[in-house]
Specification:
The chain is mainly beta.
Length: 657
């Protein structure tokens, strides 16, 4: 009884029998399905240690048996064709040195190699995936010197952690074709030896792991975007993916999937670039013939950042109107971020936050009717001019066009802005900050409105385009930030009525800067202060607010609308640097009754310890006489010589200012 129990105990602890590994060799030149007796060892038996060797003939792997193997070698003249089923063909190595095709099913392997020596051979592999799904931990095409080709198309997808062409600086020749419908899901494609040409012709390159930071495409011999182009799916990447490889050819690039894709290479492809989801950022360059960029959907962005550069003849921005084109780089006039002949903002928003944008000509709404286009400048420099005398807002009928300047500089170097070309266009200019350099802003067709809210118009060039800066607009409103005009040494006229705008009762008024003469001939209703800091401001009609002039700069307010009310006038002396007589106000109709300006009586001197001032009225002119206060020759004994020294030091400090 004890012996039986012991035997029983022993029998319970014996390990299960371990199946031995078997090499299955496909019978020479046989054509048949994997699940058959066409193996020299008889019918295939699944086993994680078994090896399938196909050196000739054709094996079809279908859904009649889900295969498990430890290793698969296809070499010589052998062909493996997968049409269906779910298979794990290599717990270790999957070696192709002949032909592999897949039209359906799902295949999983661990290590994928071509030209791996041994049964794998060294002549190279030809892999075509036109349907189904092929998974590998990683894949190396051309382990040894060989010629290899991978083609993915139709509904086929290859998924691998990384895809390498060549090995240890060998001399392989490799080709990847990613055609329409095909998907290659990976974290990176690199070259380690030989030459590798990638042809993108309608397929999708998809990021595998959201947190992977490897460059998606780099170091290849050539990457061609063919007629149907390339689709890149960043697939929710949380760290962004970079293509540092140069992309060339006639095709375009389409960005889909959440996350950011960065192009850092010297790209020359000529097809359209489209952003449907996420952000596409250019830190490298995009050069060549005409470039067309479409951004579709709210929150989606095409961006040129850092030293990124786009150089082309025509640069056309479009899409569904909800996307954004962003320039926020480090470009300069010598090396602009955007350097193009013709810039067309056809729909959506082009936002310049930094860097340098240069275009010989600007058009907005230049594609189809009824689109909405915005150029928004928040910083940096934007320079237009060289081809066209006029830069045109609203080319096509019914388009809605906006130029908003919040900061930076917008320089229309040689021409004027024509606001409205097509019929029924709606056009708006918002000057909220920064500086707009222009000779003339002229209304064309449709409606045109301009809002002054803190930005500066500065006259540019040497000619004055008929001496009229602004006329014919449907409205020109002065908001809380006010209108600032710098005549920059030129003479010009605003024939437009400058209207009170904004929600406050008193708007920001008008400030005249720069040498030269500005003439206002409109019926102006703005309510804020009119300030003349430099040059001459001529006004032909009454103003609703007060007027102040900076004495000592040569500033002059010249009123040609009749009698000028003294109660509205004031002046500052902060810019006085020397003695003399400074004309401040002129009035063709003289001045209303009174004897003070800014709280000072005519003919009564006052001083500030440094200068002595006297306000004078002679006919139609009010001037300010300035004389230096004589140095004291003596001081009273009270306080002694120390007091005298202190007083003298104070005076000298004032003079130094």
């Amino acid at each position: 009884m004890k012996t039986k129990l012991l035997l029983a105990a022993v029998s319970l602890t014996l390990p299960a029998a371990i199946a031995s590994a078997t090499d299955y060799n496909w019978i020479t030149d046989t054509i048949g399905i994997w699940n058959s007796s066409n193996w020299t060892e008889g019918a295939w038996a699944n086993g994680a240690g078994n090896t399938a060797k196909i050196g000739s003939g054709t094996v079809t792997l279908d859904n009649s048996l889900d295969v498990t193997a430890g290793r698969t070698d296809i070499y010589g003249t052998g062909t493996l064709s997968v049409t269906g089923g779910t298979h794990n063909l290599a717990g270790s190595e999957f070696n192709i040195n002949s032909i592999y095709t897949q039209t359906g099913g799902k295949v999983t392997v661990n290590q994928f190699y071509t030209a791996n020596g041994g049964n794998g051979g060294n002549t190279g592999g030809n892999v075509t995936i036109s349907g189904g799904e092929f998974n590998a931990s990683y894949a190396i095409f051309g382990v040894n010197n060989s010629t290899n080709e991978l083609t993915i198309s139709g509904t086929g997808e290859m998924i691998t952690g990384w895809l390498q062409f060549g090995n240890n600086n060998n001399t392989t020749t490799n080709t990847l074709n990613l055609n329409t419908g095909g998907t290659l899901t990976t974290n990176k494609i690199v070259k380690s030896g030989g030459s590798t040409t990638v042809n993108f012709n309608g397929g999708t390159l998809k990021v595998k792991d959201a947190g992977n930071t490897d460059h998606l495409l780099s170091g290849l011999t050539q990457a061609n975007l063919l007629t149907n182009g390339l689709i890149v799916d960043t697939n929710g990447s949380t760290v962004g993916k970079t293509i540092s490889q140069k992309l060339e050819g006639e095709g375009g690039l389409t960005k889909i999937g959440d996350g950011t894709l960065t192009l850092s290479g010297a790209n020359t492809y000529t097809g359209k670039t489209t952003v449907n989801v996420g952000i596409l950022e250019v830190t490298g360059s995009l050069a060549g013939n005409d470039k067309s960029i479409d951004v579709n959907g709210t929150g989606n962005v095409f961006a040129v950042t850092e030293a990124g550069k786009i150089t082309t003849n025509k640069f056309m921005l479009g899409g569904d109107g909800a996307g954004k084109f962003l320039v926020d780089g480090t470009g300069t006039s010598g090396s602009p971020n955007i350097d193009v002949g013709e810039l067309s903002v056809n729909s959506g928003t082009m936002q310049v936050a930094g860097g340098y944008v240069k275009a010989a000509a600007l058009y907005t709404g230049n594609n189809v009717a009824d689109e909405t286009a915005t150029l928004q400048v928040d910083g940096g420099t934007v320079s237009f001019g060289g081809w066209k005398e006029s830069q045109i807002m609203g080319v096509k009928d019914g388009t809605k066009n906006t130029l908003t300047v919040n900061g930076g500089t917008v320089d229309f170097v040689e021409g004027k802005i024509k606001v409205g070309h097509g019929s029924n266009t709606v056009n708006t200019i918002n000057l909220n900050g920064g500086e707009l350099l222009v000779k003339q802003i002229a209304k064309g067709n449709g409606t045109a409105n301009i809002n002054f809210n803190g930005g500066t118009i500065k006259l540019s060039g040497t000619a004055d385009v008929g001496s009229v800066l602004l006329t014919g607009f449907d409205s020109a409103k002065v908001l809380e930030g006010g209108a600032i005009i710098n005549t920059n040494g030129l003479d010009t006229t605003i024939a437009q009525d400058l209207l009170h705008g904004g929600s406050a009762a008193t708007d920001g008024g008008l400030t005249k800067n720069g040498a030269g003469t500005l003439t206002l001939t409109g019926t102006n209703t703005y309510t804020g202060m009119t300030t003349v800091n430099e040059g001459t401001l001529v006004v032909t009609n009454a103003l609703a607010g007060g007027v102040t002039v900076a004495a000592g700069t040569g500033a002059l307010f010249d009123y040609q609308g009749g009698e000028l009310n003294l109660a509205l006038l004031d002046f500052t002396t902060d810019d006085i640097t020397g003695a003399g007589s400074y004309n401040l106000f002129e009035s063709s109709g003289g001045f209303s009754l009174g004897d003070t300006v800014g709280g000072h009586e005519f003919g009564v001197a006052w001083d500030d310890g440094l200068w002595e001032y006297t306000l004078n009225q002679t006919g139609t002119t009010i001037s300010l006489s300035v004389a230096s206060i004589p140095e004291p020759s003596t001081y009273a004994l009270i306080g002694g010589l120390a007091a005298a020294g202190i007083a003298l030091a104070v005076r000298r400090r004032k003079n130094a200012k």
